[in-house]
Specification:
The structure is a homodimer. The first copy, chain A, has about 180 residues and is mainly α. Chain A has a domain of about 110 residues: Winged helix-like DNA-binding domain superfamily/Winged helix DNA-binding domain (Arc Repressor Mutant, subunit A, Orthogonal Bundle). Helices cover about 55% and strands about 5% of the residues of chain A. Chain A is built from 7 helices and 2 strands. A two-stranded antiparallel sheet of chain A has the order 1-2. In chain A, helix 1 crosses helix 6 and helix 2 crosses helix 3. The model of chain A has no long low-confidence stretch (mean pLDDT about 90). The interface between A and B is large, with 62 and 62 residues.
């Protein structure tokens, strides 16, 4: 098992669609899921976690959905990782240093003093990994996507999301007339 | 699940006992396991992996066992991690970017071009973590242990290992006489 997998990847891709919403408009989690052919329930769960972590805000109603809670430069990959996975240490120390055939019964005080040197090396690697994840933000990812994805596809995507919203509006009006 | 756990911790602690063997003598995997109250089979498996990775060499016979295959400065925490865990990427990319409701059937060439920006951020974090793990070596860990563990305990440990070897010698002589 790798440390991070599909939850992080899905959440970041979803946030990129929220970040690209026109004029700070909201994006429906259901639309974002459908656009990427992902499970709507799974995506809803990820948005709930990101909302709890303060990365997105939700609005109710026909044109409701999720918006970024702060600027794209202020949401790092690390923020998203921690939001959807929780803090996950790289290494769990089992304090093997406290096991010794010579410790008759309990372990002496020195055997548990400070952080085990092996654990300390792992904590440094953990910090290096987290520092690196904190260096990339949504604005940079979004810029990369804008560079790679052809303009026609970007336009088609915007149209698709607008059409989903419009269809919901028509559905609501029809229901208002016939109900 | 964290990325690394007891296999890495056990392997490093075991190597430290091999590194501290007097005058480059060999250490029996069974003794190293017994000293730390660890499963002998588990420790044997870890030594086999470290031998395959070229970190230790094995000698047969009554006073056989494992020795470091190179200097303590030349065995890093990363070497041990890779030996016992194999290369484990931090993140497995599922290429979600290739899923799009607008891609009718196959995905267009641009959708799979280069490394996904999310995957690239994860690869940078992976490299930062591995670079950090490569910065700590067995010599540094061993020095830390020598500093923390009281001299009397270090001496008692050396005596315990010598006594195990001597007991095996007496056992062999007894068997030679009576068999």
């Amino acid at each position: 098992m790798s440390q991070y997998g599909s939850a992080v990847e899905c959440a970041l891709h979803c946030l990129l669609y929220v970040a690209r919403a026109d004029e700070g408009g909201a994006r429906s989690a259901r639309d974002v899921a459908a656009f990427q052919k992902l499970s709507a329930d799974y995506v809803a769960k990820l948005f709930t976690r990101m909302q709890k972590a303060g990365l997105v805000t939700a609005t109710e109603g026909l044109h409701g959905g999720f918006r970024l809670a702060r600027g794209r430069e202020e949401i790092s990959v690390l923020d998203v990782v921690d939001a959807v996975e929780g803090y996950k240490p790289l290494f769990v120390c089992r304090e093997i240093r406290a096991n010794c055939v010579l410790f008759d019964g309990g372990k002496p005080a020195w055997a548990g003093r400070g952080v085990c040197a092996i654990h300390a090396a792992m904590l440094r690697a953990d910090a290096a990994m987290r520092d690196s994840l904190a260096e990339t933000n949504l604005a940079q990812l979004s810029e990369h996507v804008a560079h790679v994805v052809p303009k026609a596809q970007q336009k088609a995507a915007q149209n698709w999301f607008q059409e989903q919203g419009a269809a919901r509006g028509r559905g609501a009006r029809t229901r208002a007339i016939f109900n």
